[in-house]
């Protein structure tokens, strides 16, 4: 397994967090994905690889349509969604919550899920 697709900086607004204002007010989330593929397509056909345009759209939908208290749970949900594609052998999801970092006076708050 040497083939990988990396997608960095997928952005979307969603309502995730433990505080009441986080459940009501959308905030920005940023996702980085690393997908290890079972095999690299050899016939130059989109049907034999991960359609990353569709994947980006579906990750954005997960962020905007779901609501979780913990960003760890959101990251797990994104990882499971990626693994539902039979061509994906493993995934690393890094989920950033910039508003949380700003409120703490730090550069970044993120979680990493590896499956």
Put the structure in a nutshell.
With 115 residues, the protein is α+β, with helices and mostly antiparallel strands. Helix content is 34%, strand content 31%. The longest helix has 14 residues, at 52-65.
Task: Indicate the low-confidence ranges by residue numbers.
Answer: none
Going across the major beta sheet, what is the strand order?
A: 1-2-3-4
Distance between the termini: 15 Å
- Please provide the ordered H/E string of secondary-structure elements: EHEHHEHE
In the CATH hierarchy, the architecture is 2-Layer Sandwich
Q: Report the count of strand segments.
A: 4
Cα-atom radius of gyration: 15 Å
Mean pLDDT value:
92
Per-chain topology:
Elements: E1 4-14, H1 20-24, E2 27-37, H2 52-65, H3 71-83, E3 88-96, H4 98-104, E4 110-114
Antiparallel strand pairs: 1-2, 2-3, 3-4
Helix pairs in contact: 2-3
